[in-house]
Amino acid sequence: MTSVNPPPPGEGAAAALAVGGDSYLSHAKGLRSWIFTLDHKRIGVMYLVAVLTSFFLGGVFALLVRTELWTPGRTIVSADTYNKLFTLHGAVMIFLVLIPSIPATIGNFVLPLMLGAKDVALPRLNLASFHLYVVGAVFLLAAILTGGVDTGWTFYTPYSVTTGTSVILTTLGAFILGFSSIFTGLNFIVTLHKMRPKGMSWFRMPLLLWSLYATAIIQVLATPVLGITLLLLVAERTLGIGIFNPALGGDPLLFQHFFWFYSHPAVYIMILPAMGIESELISVFSRKHIFGYNFIAYSSIAIAVFGFLVWGHHMFVSGQSGLANMIFSLLTFSVAIPSAVKVFNWLATMYKGSIRFDTPMLYALAFIFLFAIGGLTGLFLGALATDVHLHDTYFVVAHFHYTMFGGTVIAFLGGLHYWWPKFFGRRYSERWGKIAALLVFVGFNLTFFTQFVMGSHGMPRRYYNYLPQFTPYHQASTIGSYILALGFFVMAGYLAHSLIKGERAPANPWGAATLEWRTSSPPPYYNFEHEMTAGDPYDLDTVRFVSRAEGWVPATEGAGS
Amino acid sequence: MSTTSPGSESGHHDPHLAHHFENAEQQADSAKLGMWIFLATELLFFSGLFCAYAMYRANHPEIFIWADQFLDKKLGGLNTVILICSSLTMAWAVRAAQLGRRRALAILLTATLVFAACFLGVKGIEYNTKWKHGLLWGEYYHPHVEGAAESGAAPVTAPPAAAPDKAAAASDGTEIPPAAEGPAGLAPANAPAHEIPASAPKNVQIFFSIYFVMTGLHGIHVIAGMIVIAWLLRRTLRGEFGDGYATPVDNVGLYWHLVDIIWIYLFPLLYLIR
Amino acid sequence: MTTLLHCALLALTAAPGKPSFLMPREASTVAGEVDHLFYLVLGISAFFFLLVVGIMLYFVIRYRYREGVAAEKTATHNTALEVTWTVIPLTLALVIFAYGFKGFIDIVTPPANAYEVLVTAQKWSWQFTYPNGYVDKDLHVPVNRPVRLVMQSQDVIHSLYVPAFRIKRDVVPGRYNKAWFQATTPGEYQLFCAEYCGTGHSTMLAKVIVHRPGGFDTWLADASNLLKTMSPVDAGRHLYTVRGCAQCHSIDGSGKTGPTFKGFFGHKVVLSTGQAITADEDYVRESILDPQAKVVAGFEPVMPTFQGRLTNEDITSIIQYLKSLSAGPKGGGGK
């Protein structure tokens, strides 16, 4: 059934190639060979460094926000500074971290490898995408250095038109980052359409690729609308076109419609790749074929399509018509269902499996726990009557952190730990990996769970001052954030150590059946020794375990059974 | 399938074929699909503006009917013809590239550039006229044209040195702040949809804001197209495209046709309102 | 199953006058319905969460890796199962939607003859204008009477939020947004601004005072008469307190968004242009009507205008009050 290419004399030769020999990391030397590289793997690694750096920056802002909120009234900064801190935290995390995270780092590296291909379809566009990211990041940095911006990451008019802070630099930065995102999505769509190997029909693709495809569709169709929205905001500020200004005949709510038309699909850009990673991890670490492949594939596309229809649920109390509210609420519930059902599919995959608790799996299990909470709390917000009470309170803040952090970031960490040996040819300390995962999990829940309770009690968001009765909740949340930070420091520590002194990793340390594991860890710059033919990506019988040093190898030498 | 040894292109002597593609057809298909997707993004980029147009026109048709008198249909029509001609020369250029006819290609690309420059020239004349008559966007709308002279067009003209909080500052001492006066933006108009108002309605500047943003953005895309076509011309003059490899010309052609199509929608929406 | 859970939770939940673990006390006619839905969704969520996490933990223990024990091959799909676990959540989702929609209609549909109060939001204070023209910084309402709020903003988008009533509505410049409620229990409730609006967003608070039967009319009569029976200085002090001046101008010398009024009147001030003038009656009047005309150096030009919102008598009272804050042992430093 599964057609497997006969491996060359000792596929271990491929591993040996990397260990002592030439991998994509050592293939060409010098800064220029990285800055002008067309190798998708190097681009992925550069993105990884950039995204992790941005995550650190966004995290610092978060800690400052949480520290300020230790007491009502002033703790460490003024109200204006606080407003800038939460705005920049949001802008950095969303535009520099969450949107690119999985597609640009893991996606860029793994997608061509999963296709048995030599690169993405448009490598120069890929490099351009990365350079645009850097330019966009520089604009955001410039905004920070010129006094910051205090509008909230949502830039609502008229406040964003009249405030004196660095709105233009920030919006131009986001505009440029939008192009980076569009180019990545465009590249992935073309690659998946044109460069699948023999044997890989659409329904034989690994589910990560389905999720990246659905994500790319959203990136390509939604991001341009953000582009025009930000451009109009810049024009409003600089030229006074008045399109959002009621004194000049404009409508402030028009901005909200335009903004959320992108920004709601944007959250699906964040979560779909995370779900794709989840499918890979759950299957491999349960040693079982994924359950309900077709449904998971279709649901990814359904989420992408329906995600475009629900933006108005951010505007239920804005004064838009009751009819619009009703339609948006109804559609919002429809988009919740495909996500929910995937969770059942993953559980069914684990049924009667043989489950290992390596660090990637710990994150995959944490994802189910945290995303379930995030998704279920969305029900409160999708229902009109309860949303009136909960909108713009900490309930919303907790909901989106559970989905974006507890969902996307946790899955990203799982993927990072899973593909780390493939990226760098090294293992990391399992023991410290587990410790960090525990710290992150505990810290996260302590930080954000109390925020649900604060929110339902009426604590509004974006508040510098708060009423004294909310103090215990805020303090618990702040303590949680420090535990979270500790977890990340531990993680940085053992991952850095792994790069320098980590145990060498074999081609397939986890026993997966997708194509990227059939070349050395790290891969050579040309990816594969031979042309690859794909089989069922979840048929784990195609590999068998040899030893820790050699990892898993193809089960059949010669023709398939 | 033949096993290709790593890194080399044994069996591929096609100088245009990138190493990660198996054959020229796959490469050409990929480039074309990529360009179509890019065009989709451009369409969505403009769609926001078309939506804004639709919304404001539906709620305030009288503004659009009134403002239409200030747009020169003849110049707009001329520009439409110019762009269509440029699309023709561009399509012809693609054919020339596919046939490897470099001289024809160079001439046709040049012709396209000339047409595009004419388009921008006409646009420049139109913009200049509007500037002279004070028919600009938003807060810069200060019309002094016959027919608009008696306009109380802009309800609150902000003081020239615009204070940050425009909506609140009213310096002449007798005006009630706009919000207290009533919802300015979306109140239904008094004039029926198709009648030409007797005098200038309120908020005419909204039309010109939309006009300048839409035609301005379109103009920027024309300029960008011209730059890319000039690059193609340079490559042609340096000896390329003689062998039937037409992918870059083909794809730039697709972009140029989109720029044309967008104008074909803009023209009736902005110029042919009455 | 969910009904049982629902009832159990109801027993632990909020009631009129009593806050619960999760919700503030219910103090309006719609609060009960909103909370009902909240607990329904909570019950369904808790059920599914415990189900999912429970199964996950069970599987993780029961099917953990053991030496020599391979994973069992099970079906890779099961249409009946997949359809079932799609249809059931979909049905529950639609039920939640229906209750949510119905509740929303109740939240936004005021009964006839509601008592109307005009609300003006500005950075960073609220003004409530009662039918007789009296303006206050807090919202006073009679109990058991529907109240309709007609809201406008002077500058940016704000949002009026009263958690105890479970109502919230954005206040958008250039249009009138409306909200309504009927308070069920006398008392004092918190009102927040719930749409970020700048530096003072978190201090843009107000109180909702629900009066006992008969108490509201008495209060309104007394409050409206205040200005007619007070001395100009007292009236000025009152206006300073309720019309939003206190938000940005202190009277004890401390620094706020605007200059302190202590010792202000009658003294020299340096403007942002460098010019030095005396803060006299004309200056105060001009600053109230056209605040951007002469801004004191070191302060941002963010004061909103009170053009059309303060009468000439109001402005005179304020001037007298400011004079009193500069008074030495004898009468003021002004003319």
Kindly list the characteristics that best describe this protein.
heterotrimer, A: 561 residues, mainly alpha, Cytochrome C Oxidase, Chain A, two-stranded antiparallel ribbon, 17 helices, B: 274 residues, Four Helix Bundle (Hemerythrin (Met), subunit A), 7 helices, elongated, disordered N terminus
Instruction: Report the top-level CATH class of chain A.
Output: Mainly Alpha
Q: Helix count of chain A, per DSSP? A: 17
| Side-by-side strand order of the widest sheet of chain C | 3-2-1-5-8
The portion of residues forming beta strands of chain C comes to 15-25%
Q: What share of residues of chain C is helical?
A: 25-40%
In round numbers, the mean pLDDT of chain C is 90
Q: Low-confidence parts of chain A lasting 5 or more residues at pLDDT below 50?
A: 1-19
SSE string of chain C, helices as H and strands as E = HHHEEEEEEEEEEHHHEEHH
Domain tally of chain A:
1
- Quaternary structure type: heterotrimer
The total of beta strands of chain A comes to 2
Unreliable residue runs of chain C: 330-335
Biggest sheet record of chain A:
2 strands, antiparallel
Arrangement of strands in the largest sheet of chain A: 1-2
What would CATH call the homologous superfamily of the largest domain in chain C?
A: Cupredoxins -  blue copper proteins
**How many discrete domains of chain C?**
3
Rg of chain C to the nearest angstrom? 28 Å
Form type of chain C: elongated
Taken as a percent bin, the fraction of beta residues of chain A is under 5%
What features would you describe in this structure?
The complex is a heterotrimer of chains A (561), B (274) and C (335). With 561 residues, chain A is mainly alpha-helical. Chain A has 17 helices and two strands. In chain A, helix 10 (252-286) crosses helix 15, helix 11 (293-306) runs antiparallel to helix 12 and helix 15 (394-424) runs antiparallel to helix 16 (430-456). Chain B contains seven helices and no strands. In chain B, helix 1 packs parallel to helix 7, helix 3 (73-98) packs antiparallel against helix 7 (247-271) and helix 4 (102-132) runs antiparallel to helix 6. Chain C is α+β, with helices and mostly antiparallel strands and 335 residues long. Helix content of chain C is 38%, strand content 19%. Chain C has eight helices and twelve strands. Chain C has helices at 2-11, 31-62, 79-108, 215-229, 232-242, 245-248, 281-289, 312-326; strands spanning 115-122, 125-129, 135-136, 139-142, 146-153, 158-162, 167-171, 177-182, 187-193, 206-211, 268-270, 276-278. A five-stranded mixed sheet of chain C has the order 3-2-1-5-8, with no helix packed on it. Chain C has a five-stranded mixed sheet with strand order 4-10-9-6-7. In chain C, a hairpin with a 5-residue loop joins strand 11 and strand 12 (276-278). In chain C, helix 1 packs across helix 2, helix 2 (31-62) runs antiparallel to helix 3 and helix 5 (232-242) crosses helix 8 (312-326). The radius of gyration of chain C is 28 Å and the shape is elongated. The chains are: A mainly alpha (561), B mainly alpha (274), C alpha+beta (335). The interface between A and C is large, with 91 and 87 residues.
